[in-house]
Amino acid sequence: MVGSQNRIPKQVHKIHLTAICGTGMGALACMLKEQGFAISGSDQKIYPPISDFLTERGIPIMDGFKPEHISRGLDLVIVGNAVSRDNPEIKKMNQMGLPFCSMPQALNRFVAADKKVLLIAGTHGKTTTSSILAWMLYKAGLDPSFMIGGILQNFNSNYRLGAGEHIVIEGDEYDTAFFDKDPKFMHYQPAMSVLTSVEFDHADIFRDLNHVQEAFGGFLSQLDRSSLLLVFDDDKNLRNLISKTGCRIELYGKNHSSDWCLGDVFIDPPWTIFEVLKSGTRFGKFKTRLIGKHNLFNALSVMAIAHHLGVPAEVISGALETFEGIKRRQQIRGQKNRIIVMDDFAHHPTAVRETIEAVKSFYSQNRLIAVFEPRTNSSMRKVFQTVYPASFDFADLICIRQPPLLEKIPFKERFSSEQLVADLKKRGKDAHFYGNTESIIEFLSGEAKPGDLILVMSNGGFDNIHERLLDRL
Question: 414 is in which domain, residue-wise?
């Protein structure tokens, strides 16, 4: 029966990762390699930057999923969640009776076993919050380990093996593996955790908002009573959920009655300067290059954790000032003829709205051109069709691409970019539909003017639109 070998042997040396090019799987492979394990991996989508990232670290990547990649001498196969039970490598693994496990199981066994887990969960802000926390603990001399779903500019990496007692983990609500459909975050027992938000997303695995809340409720119900949970105070979906846990809870966010509250905020480019209140008393004034109140709330939750770990306010301040951000999160990819090209991972309607509003508030004198590619399993479905139009209210000019690989989605469930453009025009917005990336580049190369900021939003590579645009501007 599939699952009977779902265990990790006591003695392990040679490990193979099936679907190694996922962000988490690639990071895990590198961590295991640094620990002295013999690592190999395979995937069917091998492309930079992850392929270069792994190759530079001496990890061979086999192209495609093939039975011959699973050979005698392997002690363990780590199975990525993108792999089905019908995968040729999984069939060979089962035939040979090889032990296997999921990515979270391996992370727990080989990396986090003797460490205190600091877990960041929620629909939005996980990567940014995890990254600020990892950098803050590093600057405090706590030598943390981390595994995060984005490349931290300060480390040029999404993972680190530290000698300190803490590990920062981005807690993903996506399912674990074909043999374990629970969310990945169910595998961890955090000493402290942050819950940033709960909204409907991942329409390929969750039926509706109630289904998403069930998943997060399961996570909260298993938290140890001694665990500390930081919860954003302005998310209505969180209010009922937190009753499911018996652990310690602190609130952070907008309300002056919360344990941690954001005070006055001033924008003085390139800085955002903000005040923090702890239990109604001024904790301090801080500055950061992060843009947008949503990112200040992310920082606020990190400051709370750092404070509980004994990090002094002056160290917290220094870490925020020197935090360089994450690749693909409001990352300026270049500037040509005084036209800025910015890259962002936003794809959920809430993230799109908050990102556009934040960027516009920071670059108030610039014309903001929003370029959006809906390509996630949720955004390619019509579940957010009527929600997206309001997300673009702060953009001055909008370019919407036809979703790539739309044929993967059943016809009646498909999102319509043409309909989104029509709805945006009804709201009085200057919006345009494009069937491919080249036509967007062609349009913007003639339309963009000095002083414009082009904000490109996609969770994929978007056909390298950023570099191509910079070449043509």
Answer: 331-472
Provide the domain count of the chain. Answer: 3
Residue 116 resides in a domain: yes
Tell me: the pLDDT tens digits for 278-298? 999 999 999 999 999 999 999
pLDDT in tens, 40-83: 999 997 766 677 888 889 998 999 999 999 998 999 999 999 89
Same domain, 40 and 70: yes
Give the domain-ending residue among 50, 71, 105. Answer: 105
- Whole-model pTM: value is 0.91
- CA-nearest of 125, 201, 150, 210 to 377 is 201
Same domain for 118 and 183, yes or no, is: yes
- Examine residue 218 and state whether it is found in any structural domain, yes or no: yes
Question: Which pLDDT does position 327 carry in this prediction?
Answer: 84
Condensed to tens digits (0 to 9), the pLDDT of residues 356-408 reads 999 999 999 999 999 999 998 888 999 999 999 999 999 999 999 999 888 88
For residue 59, the domain's CATH number is: 3.40.50.720
Is 144 a member of any domain?
A: yes
pLDDT of residue 438: 95
1 pLDDT higher than 70: no
User: Is 9 contained in some domain?
Assistant: no
Check whether residue 255 and residue 348 sit in a common domain. no
